[in-house]
Amino acid sequence: MKQLVLILSAVQIFLMPLQATAQERNNYFSIKAGTISFTDGLRETNFRTGFDGEIVYGRYLTPNFAVEVGTGYLHDGVYIKQGFNFSQDIQAIPVILTAKVIYPIQPIELFAGAGYSVYFTKYKGFLIDADATTHLLADDNPPVRKATVFGGQFVAGVNYSFSPAFFFGIEGKYIITDAANFKIFSPNLDGYAITGSFGYRF
Fold first, then answer.
1. How far apart, in whole angstroms, are the C-alpha atoms of residue 141 and residue 125?
2. Which residue in 122, 141, 126, 39 sits closest to 74, CA to CA?
3. Which residues are CB-neighbours of 194 under 8 A, at least 6 positions away?
4. Do 19 and 11 touch, CB atoms closer than 8 A?
5. What's phi and psi for 149, nearest 5 deg?
6. Positive or negative: CA dihedral 141, 36, 153, 158
7. Which of 42, 58, 72, 130 is least enclosed by beta carbons within 10 angstroms?
């Protein structure tokens, strides 16, 4: 009987850290929405500030390190009047992987990180010095051109936990990418994004 008690006690002691780990909220989902401001090539073609949104799944590997994977949607459109009236529109759906270093000061988390992304992009519009005149006079729809672009991102921000499960925060992100080959021009998607987030830990 004493041996059984000792065995059960040993098993209980062994399982205590596992139970504590299981009770920790190591996983989370987060929804982010905000604005993106393009630089370089897209800014030169009159794209300025558009919408940027993401949904991500993250996991805390330690209290000071997390990995996120997610997807999203970014979009910007411009309306130009330079002898002709026409619109340009660029959209992208990214697949995002980010590693974050976290400094927790309960109930606040400060974080910074970097990652890698693939952007599935689409451009719809004309360029003045290309085929705009011919197409506009013919009253045609503007052509759609697609490209896959590889890039990376650097992030920093802060989260505030208003319960063990729920948090909200703000994140700044700098994006740098390869050139998107849209045939008529090849801009990169470099820019700055500011988003607010709402998340759930489980």
1. 8
2. 122
3. 34, 35, 170, 171, 172, 173
4. no
5. -125, 135
6. negative
7. 130
Would you say the pTM of this structure is higher than 0.85?
Answer: no
CA angle 163, 16, 12 (to 5 degrees): 145
Contact present, 122 and 146 (Cβ < 8 Å): yes
pLDDT digit string, tens, across residues 120-140? 999 877 655 444 444 444 445
CATH number listed for the domain at residues 27-201: 2.40.160.20
Question: How many CA atoms within 13 Å lie on the side-chain side of 53?
Answer: 8
pLDDT at 45: 54
The single-letter code of the amino acid at 134 is T
Instruction: Report domain extents, the chain.
Output: 27-201
pLDDT value at position 143? 74
Where are any strands of DSSP class E within the chain? 27-38, 49-62, 65-81, 85-105, 108-124, 144-161, 166-177, 191-201
Q: Distance (Å, rounded) from C-alpha 197 to C-alpha 174? A: 16
Alpha-carbon torsion (143, 146, 152, 158), positive or negative:
positive
Q: Identify which of 200, 80, 54, 65 has the alpha carbon closest to the alpha carbon of residue 142.
A: 80
Q: Which token pair is 1?
A: 């009987």
Instruction: Please say whether the beta carbons of 30 and 56 come within 8 A.
Output: yes
How confident is the model at residue 140, as a pLDDT? 56
Evaluate the CA torsion angle 90, 91, 95, 99 in order and state its sign: positive
Which region, left, alpha or beta, applies to residue 183 given φ > 0 means left and ψ of -120 to 50 means alpha? left
